[in-house]
Amino acid sequence: MITMTGFCQSESRLLGNWEGKINAGTGIRVVFHFVKDSLGNLSATMDSPDQGAKDIPCNNVKMQGDSVFLQILSANGNYSGLLTDSTIRGKWKQGLFFKLDLKKVDKITGLKRPQNPQPPFPYKSEDIEYDNKEKTMHYGATITIPPGKGPFPAVLLITGSGAQNRDEEIMEHKPFAVLADYLSRRGVIVLRADDRGVGKSTGDFGSSTTADFAIDAGNSLDYLTSRPEVDAKKIGLIGHSEGGMIAPVLAAKRKDIDFIILLAGPGEKISKLMEDQNAALYQSVGINEKAIHAFRPFFREMVALINESKDSSVFSQKLEMTLDEWRKNTAPAYVLATTRVYNDSSQKVFIESITSTLYTPWFRYFLQFDPQVYLQQLHCKVLALNGEKDLQVASKSNLAAIKQALQKSQAKKYDIIEIPRLNHLFQTCKNCTVMEYGQLEETFSPVALTLLGNWIDKNVKTEKKPFHNKADQ
Fold it and tell me: Against a cut of 0.70, is the pTM above it?
C-alpha cells in the first residue's frame, strides 16, 4: 500500500508540460504533455515546436518510482529519464542516444516571428471566398490591394508540398503573408489561397496530386483575372518548391500569364531531386558519407518499386524483399544510420512508415514528374531564385537545369540567381539544416524580398532588358 501511494505521488508530480532540447548539433526543442486518461492511466503526447510537429502520440508511457519511460513508435524513438524535483534528466534514443533534460513549465516558450505582418496595413486586405466555374470547388483566400488608382500588376502565390494554408504557414512562420505584405506595399496585388481541404477550401487533399493542385491554381488565377483592380497584361505566378513545379505547368498552357517567379522550383526530374535531397539531409545531420553512398542505390530501387507496384500491399512485400537483400550486403551501421533499421521489429516499422508515406497518389505522381517538359514550353518572363544552402532543392543542379530548359523555350526574358546563405524557405541560415527552420526568427530574407521586388519593377512594371547574373553566363 505504501509503494502504491509512492507511485501515485510520483505520477502526480509528472503530470503537466515538460520542455527541453535534444542536443543534436542544434538544439531541437521538445515538449511532453503528461496527463491521466478517463480510466486513470498515464498517457502523453509530444510536440517538436521547431519542426512544426504537435500532439504526436506517445506509447507505453510508464512511471516506476522516479524513473520515466515512453516510446514514440511513429518515429522509432524512445525516452527514459529520472524525475528529480522539477527536472527530468534523461536520454532520447532514435538510432543514436542524445541527452535530453526536461524542465516542468506552466507555459510553453513562444516563437519569435518579427516579420509576421501586423495591422494596420497601408493597403486593403480582404479575406474572400470563391468557386470554380463548375461550382465543384470552393476556395478560401486573402487578397491584398495597394492604395491608389489601379489597375495594378498582380500575382498568385502557389504553395509548396504538404497541406498548406494561404500563408504557407510552417513552425509559426508565415512566408506568404510576409511576401504578400512586401509586394502590396510596392504596388502589386497579391492573391494567396488555402490548399484544397485546408482552411476555407473544400476538396480532399489526401487523394490529390500535383496535377489537381495545378487545377486549383488555375481556378484561383481565373478569380484573380476577374478583379477590376488587376492589370490584365501584368499577371504573374510566384510558386515555392512544389509551387515552382505548378507555375510552369500553368504558364505553359495559358496566354494570360506575363511572368512567373520560381522560388526553389525544381529543374531536374523529381526522382533525381529526391535522391539528392535525401543525401543532403543525411549529410546535414552528420551521417557518414559511405552510409549515404550505400543508401543511394537502395533509394533508387524503392522509387522503381513505387512506380511498378499495382497496390500498397504489393509494394510492401517487394520492399521487404529488397530491404532484406540490401541489409545482407550492407554494413549494419550504414543501414541503421539511414533507415534506423537494426532488427526485424524496426524493419517492420520502417516498411509500414515508408508505405504509408510514399505509396500515395501524390507521391507516385510527384516521383514521375519532369519539370523540363513544361519549362521548355514557356513563353513568359521568368525569374528563378534559389538559396545556396537549400537542402531540399539543390540550388546549383536545379538552377542549371532550369537555365538549360529555358534556353530551349520561347521565354521572353529570364534571370537565374542563386542567393548566398539562404535555405529552402529563403531564410538566412546559420547551421543550414531543416531542423533549424523553426529556430530562426527570420521568415523571409530581406535580400531575397528586395531582389524579387526590384525584378518586378524592372521587368513587369516597366519594360527593360533582363539582368543576368554574371555567374550564370
Answer: yes
